[in-house]
Amino acid sequence: MKAARWHGVKDIRVEDLAEPVPGPGEVKVRVAWTGICGSDLHEYLAGPIFVPVGAEHPLSRDKAPITLGHEYCGTVAELGAGVTGLAVGDRVAIEPIFACGDCPACHEGRYNLCDSLGFVGLSGGHGGFAAHSVVPARMVHKMPDALSMEQGALVEPAAVALHAVRLSKIRAGDTAAVFGAGPIGLLVVEALRVAGAAQIHVVEPSGVRRQKALELGATSAIDPTAGDAVAAIRAATGGVNVAFEVTGVPRVLPQCIDATRHEGQVLIVSIWEGDAAFHPNTVVLKERQLQGTIAYRNVYPAVMELMTQGYFSAEKLVTKRIALDDIVAEGFEALVAEKSHVKILVEGAG
Q1: CATH code of domain 159-292
Q2: What are the residue boundaries of the structural domains of the chain, listed by start?
Q3: Is the backbone peptide bond immediately before 65 cis, with ω within 30 degrees of 0?
Q4: Which whole number is the average pLDDT over 53-69?
């Protein structure tokens, strides 16, 4: 079967691999659609970040080259021994977290904070940029009949956004700022609408993405290259209750802090390629909070229910659909060159 494999920075190759076979407790999925994530792009441009190189990942037992793709869905093709609650033909979304089950965080049910955290398609395993994938049955979530397969590929990134908003201290009627209107930032806008935010101010240099943010319910969409975005947010709100950093750009983090009110909160959602600096007094003197967030936990069913209500719409967020053979030129390189793209989906090669 065909699969897109990470070999190194700017070195992703579509190769022929043997089709995986499910072992006990595993499920084989015929991949329908897989989204290209910002994390995938980080690996392409500046990896390895999550990709294990040299030594195997402790849970996947894999190391580079690995098959990429963790935002994916498909149809159950085969069940390994002992798998119950699923049937061949079921349409499923994959929750791609590797967690050990034994560390303190896992024992507390916070499996996304596992000491050995990894992701199928980033840390090894049978990623979604392929014809078929094999994953443990616990990673497989049946999709409601009302959802399209394209929606299934958005469950994972929408889960990131919904978990971030749930983790924040946002309350109905509060104000929020979202720095960065890429796919996750736009999904955060929608999750903030679900949470009842009264104002949502988005900061984004791309005109296309600013317009998309407004379409999805943002109160304002500010071009940071045209003026002082923090000043504009503070003029409108006096400082927001919560700011979400979704760019991974070092100079943006202090702007997020400055955009919040006293006792405000900054949620750092991005995965970073390097360090970011801020003056601690900007936090200390206003008793602000900085909160990190990674992935999601126990949220897939809620995401899919919200999707059936019209949130996190693939129709609004998917800007391009490509074949696996074109993943580098039409996928990764397109995302580097054209900041107007929101979500690019790669069709399964099965």
Answers
A1: 3.40.50.720
A2: 2-142+313-347, 159-292
A3: yes
A4: 97
- Output the 3-class SS for 35-54: ECCHHHHHHHHHCCCCCCCC
Locate 24 and state its tokens.
């006990």
First to last CA, the chain: 7
Summarised one tens digit per residue, pLDDT across range 214-256 is 999 999 999 999 999 999 999 999 999 999 999 999 999 999 9
Does the global pTM surpass 0.90?
yes
Quick one: tokens of 329? 């030129």
Q: Which of 37, 57, 51 is nearest to 9 (CA)?
A: 51
If you write DSSP's letter for every residue of 206-262 in order, what string do you get? -HHHHHHHHHTT-SEEE-TTSS-HHHHHHHHHSSEEEEEE-S--TTHHHHHHHHEEE
2-142+313-347 to CATH, choices 3.90.180.10, 3.40.50.140, 3.40.1160.10, 3.40.605.10: 3.90.180.10
Q: What amino acid occupies position 88?
A: V
How many helical (H) and strand (E) elements, i.e. helices and strands, does the chain have? 11, 18
287: enclosing H helix or E strand: none
